[in-house]
Amino acid sequence: MARYGFVTSLIDPFGRKIEYLRLSVTDRCDLRCFYCMPEGFKDFEEPAHWLTFDEIERVVGVMQEMGLARVRITGGEPLVRKDVDQLARRLKQGAGIADLSLSTNATRLARHARALREGGVDRLNISLDTLRPERFKDITQGRLDKVMDGILTAKAEGFAPIKINMVAMKGVNDDEIGDMLEFCVEHGFTLRLIETMPMGDTGRSATDHYLDLQAVKKQLAERFELLPTLDGSIDGGLIYGGGPARYMRVAGTQTHIGFITPISQHFCETCNRVRLSVDGTLYMCLGQEHNYPLRDLLRRGIPDDELKEALIAAIALKPERHEFREQPTKIVRFMSMTGG
Ligand code: SAM
Ligand code: SF4
């Protein structure tokens, strides 16, 4: 094990620098997307097991000293957790995180957009799989009008760019991808298409709807002129560096479309992230079980230098790649547990 004192940054055994944390602040959600949350789902964890904001700020602050630069607040639905805007402020100002973003289903965004912006959230990713109310209800059990209200409020509050995440599914919403891109062009949003991943039974049920995004790209090219970007990123990697999406630009607009293809074309060799679940377990990979529990250490009052050693030991566990394709039945965690 690399000892703190010799190694002070988070570099895994494959030489990848870990500078991005997905932070799950709750495993609860007010929607039930069929590929994510099981129906009749009861909360996984008691809040007593959840990391407090003090504990989260501490871990993130120590990781920031070791090179962490970006945090995405996620869940479950992060806006279900009380006072998330205050956590955002603490991560930005207290823990010194330069790039703070949040993933949301937008059902509560109209209420929270301003406070999040004032709290220091730089960027938003919003999940939206369809523009049709009936279909939205079928996929999520929720109401599209609330989500649209949230999206347009966030736009009015000045969040830019807003990225729309669409899980692209055969026989579910594959006939709407062109319309979704049109919607994004109209509003100046970025669209990201995501392949379904076999996370938990719900995720595996969705793999029946697996859609190869390489083919979608060809279809879209019949309706839109799609221009390649220099290196697959929006901006030469300046703001969005290291992300899994490979972007193209819609000619004559500022709209980009990104393809996130964990199954058809995995991107593990450039993976720069780990995930902290709400119960304080650090997961090394979305598609593997390697993890390191931090909560008890924090509650026992571990000093900073030992916490750094623990983090280095954790990162040493990071596996080379996921095995979604080879072992699709492997991951029993739902996406909402680890933080998508
Ligand atoms: N509730 C927030 C939201 O929906 O944006 C944040 C958490 S959600 C788990 C994060 C992302 O994971 C969403 O974009 C969602 O579509 C995606 N997701 C959930 N289950 C998935 C699966 N089985 N395959 C691919 N993406 C999935
Ligand atoms: Fe909730 Fe997001 Fe999962 Fe949908 S994808 S059920 S909104 S956590």
What does this structure look like?
This protein has 340 residues and is of the alpha/beta class. The chain has one domain (3-338): Aldolase class I (TIM Barrel). The chain has 11 helices and 12 strands. It has helices spanning 53-65, 84-94, 109-119, 133-140, 144-156, 177-187, 200-206, 213-223, 295-299, 304-315, 335-338; strands spanning 20-24, 70-74, 99-104, 123-127, 162-167, 190-194, 226-228, 246-250, 256-260, 273-276, 281-283, 291-293. Strands 7-8-9-6-5-4-3-2-1-10-11-12 form a 12-stranded mixed sheet. Bound molecules: S-adenosylmethionine and iron/sulfur cluster (SF4). Iron/sulfur cluster binds next to loops.
Could you list some keywords that capture this structure?
single chain; 340 residues; alpha/beta; TIM Barrel; twelve-stranded mixed β-sheet; 11 helices; 12 strands; disordered N terminus; binds S-adenosylmethionine; binds iron/sulfur cluster
List the helices and strands and how they pair.
Elements: E1 20-24, H1 53-65, E2 70-74, H2 84-94, E3 99-104, H3 109-119, E4 123-127, H4 133-140, H5 144-156, E5 162-167, H6 177-187, E6 190-194, H7 200-206, H8 213-223, E7 226-228, E8 246-250, E9 256-260, E10 273-276, E11 281-283, E12 291-293, H9 295-299, H10 304-315, H11 335-338
Helix pairs in contact: 1-2, 2-3, 3-5
